[in-house]
Write a structure and sequence with these properties.
The protein is an alpha/beta fold. Helix content is 24%, strand content 25%. It has ten helices and 16 strands. A seven-stranded mixed beta sheet has the order 6-5-4-3-2-1-16. A seven-stranded mixed beta sheet has the order 7-8-9-12-13-14-15. Helix 7 links the parallel strand 12 and strand 13. Helix 9 packs parallel to helix 10. The longest helix has 11 residues. The chain is globular, with a radius of gyration of 22 Å. The two termini are 15 Å apart.
Length: 309
């Protein structure tokens, strides 16, 4: 089942010719989600071929580089005759400000737009096989991060052992795999745990938005497959990172270590570095015990299941 991440915008507060303000598109088996929508997000969606069929937009905070793309995106959706509803999730206490943004310039979307206030420690959105959890972040405004966490999958079914136990090929296989005991013709009971392995973990993506390093990032999910973390500054501006409620690349890597992340994506790169991310990568990799990369706008990442090899 595909789980695909497209980095629409990886710049800090000021865009550059190479990097757009914050935006992250996630597609999972027909579900399309957007996390933040900085200025120009709709053009990035066109440029990188994601389309506009998102069902949910998750806003980390209401600074302009994370939300100024919303009015234009909604107008384009309306021009395309959208009628499906859109839910926008936003930190607690920001509903009215976001509503004002949705209706900016007296715009009235032609489709339902629902605004859902969220807070850390809750679930913003629950789907059939995954949920999007909310965790508190440490920025200089009301802010949250989000974690897409898939449900555990069934353990592997040991068909060979089932046949050795005398289970006939057919419906009883499915019952066992679904956790039901079955009775054989001779009265023997076969329990699911005899032929089904331990549940297998799903996949997890954690997106912090803008934040200082915080323990809540560690607590929202175990061993994420991908942590997308604020890395606005390199070590040369560590004091400014603390003052402006951002993180350095090194701090992001240290959080990823503690979270047990498989991969770390460094985003929200300040325009002060003029597109040069060499120092960010070097300093993060200096402490990292995981893969580290600084994605370009348009980069696409497919997340595999942990046991896919």
């Amino acid at each position: 089942m595909p789980l695909r991440v497209t980095f629409l915008g990886t710049a800090g507060a000021v865009p550059t010719t190479e990097r757009n303000p914050s935006g992250l598109y996630v597609a999972r088996e027909g579900d399309e989600l957007l996390f933040d929508a900085g200025e120009g997000t709709q053009r990035q969606m066109m440029r990188f071929g994601t389309g506009f069929s998102i069902s949910n937009l998750f806003v980390t905070h209401l600074h302009g580089d994370h939300v100024l793309g919303i009015p234009g995106l909604l107008q384009t959706m309306a021009f395309n005759e959208r009628d499906a509803p859109l839910t926008i999730h936003t930190p607690q206490g920001t509903q009215q400000s976001l509503s004002n943004l949705v209706t900016a310039l007296d715009n009235r979307p032609s489709f339902p737009v629902h605004i859902n206030e969220v807070r850390g420690g809750t679930v913003a959105y629950r789907a059939d096989e995954y949920e999007v959890r909310v965790f508190n972040t440490d920025h200089d405004t009301r802010s949250v991060g989000y974690a897409l966490v898939e449900d555990d999958r069934k353990g592997r079914f040991d068909r060979e052992h089932a046949e050795e136990l005398g289970v006939p090929v057919g419906p009883k296989f499915s019952k066992l795999h679904n956790g039901e005991a079955v009775e054989l013709e001779d009265g023997t009971i076969v329990e699911p745990e005899q032929v089904v392995g331990e549940p297998r973990p799903g996949r997890t993506i954690v997106y912090t938005g803008d934040t200082r390093p915080t323990v809540e990032t560690l607590e929202v999910a175990d061993n994420p497959d991908l942590l997308i973390h604020d890395a606005t500054f390199a070590d040369d501006r560590a004091e400014r990172a603390a003052k402006t409620a951002h993180s350095t690349a090194r701090q992001a890597a240290e959080i990823a270590n503690r979270a047990g992340a498989d991969r770390l994506a460094l985003v929200h790169i300040s325009s002060r570095y003029a597109g040069h991310v060499g120092d960010h990568l070097e300093q993060a990799r200096d402490v990292a015990d995981h893969e580290v990369f600084a994605p370009d706008d348009g980069e696409v990442l497919e997340i595999s299941y942990p046991d896919s090899e």
